[in-house]
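Progress report, Aim 2. The chain analyzed during this reporting quarter is listed below.
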Amino acid sequence: MWRSFRIKLVVTMVIFAAVIAFVIATINHKRISDQAIQNNAFQLESIEATVEYSLNTIDKAYYYFDNDVAEKMKANTREMLELYENNPAVDTWDIQNLKKKYEMDVYFINPDNVISHSSNENDIGMDFNECCGKLAKILDTRREAGAFYHDGMDIAQATGEITKYSYMATPDKEYIIELSYSLQEGDIFKDFNFLTVTHDLEKSYPSINEINILNLGGLALGDPAEESKLSPERRTAFEETLAEGETTEVRTLNDKGEAVIYHYVPYDSGYDFGSTQNKVVEIAYNEQELESILKGHKESFILQLAFILVITIIIALIISKWVSRPMYMAFHDSLTGLRNRAAFEEDLDGILCESEGETGLLMIDLDHFKSVNDLFGHADGDELLKNMATSIQSTIHSEGKAYRLGGDEFAIVLQNTNRDKAELVAKQVITAVNEAVTEYYKTRGLDLTASIGIALVDDEVKDVSEIYKRADRALYESKGRGKNQYRVYG
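Predicted structure tokens for the chain:
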């Protein structure tokens, strides 16, 4: 029984320690995981800030140090308007010669917003209503206004080259004269090249797939239009960011089936007041690095938990070896292994408080036990008590609990019982005691029997001393009537 108690103690300690360790380890794991996620988010915010700073810097540089390009475009446009006034038949113009003269590409956009004439023959026939609906609306407004307009950084759709455009309508509104000037060869762009910044960021962070700066139409600066078309999901997120001025994200799968998150951040230039003022920063990133970190934390968490569990088991075994027997003996009789008086009082008090039916208490006293000690000595007396304890325990099985109260006094507590069951147990105990006396060769022929007092109380009686007194009175009544019998109180 002591070993069983020790096992229960070890199991209890291990479960308790394991639960505590698991809770602490889980909290720590969650804290570390949250920190990794926060670091990943901070990394993304840092990249956003770097790209926005790069764009803001180059816009500021053009605003303060490159105003002569806009003035040059304005002067060239006015010169072309004078040519148009003298000869509105654009078909007869030598546009290639104008390109050489101005060092700018020349475009004529008709009332349908289609490029009808251009120094770049590949662009002739481009319909802005089809390719660039937003720009087409802007062109209509500018055509009606008739003023000179120039934008900031944009792209040449065929090549992706960073280009500056200017627009001014002819007095008869038949054409919009558009000039384009490449910015990529200029000193300012070379000194403040934001494309270099984005490429460096892509190389520095494994989680970053690509970074694009999208213009009003969703085309990436630096890439040809055919290579930078947005998928429907990306287009929706881009338009939402552009319209609402709020950061959005969309998760898609790439060609390899890997998850890619497209992160869209609005950019509003404080130095570009044309149609190119608003752009969107697109950051495509993956969570493979984050997932790898979280996986590592999870593996570390499992290893730590296993280590803690092993240490807990070892410590529990050591502690149980030290304290299990003293703890066990505090509530058990050292000779018979039955529960002792302390356990009896505690158990009975708990049963009386919780029981909803009748509680039965059987007080057992061995008749003439003193003669065994006198005839054979205390060693044989102890041996007989062990046999008696075994016999009593065997009669009740799991129906109740047996106790040794001291000397040759024993007790049985029956929960949710009745008179018939209690009397049956008493009869079985008397029979078992008689058989034990007969089986033990030294006590054969001795008048060793058992007297039993039974007290039954319902759920109205909650006092331990009261039921004990009743059983004790019944016990002495059975002794007074000749012993080797039982009596029921009341």
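The first strand starts at residue 105 and ends at 109. The first helix runs from residue 2 to 65. These observations will guide the mutagenesis work planned for the next reporting period.
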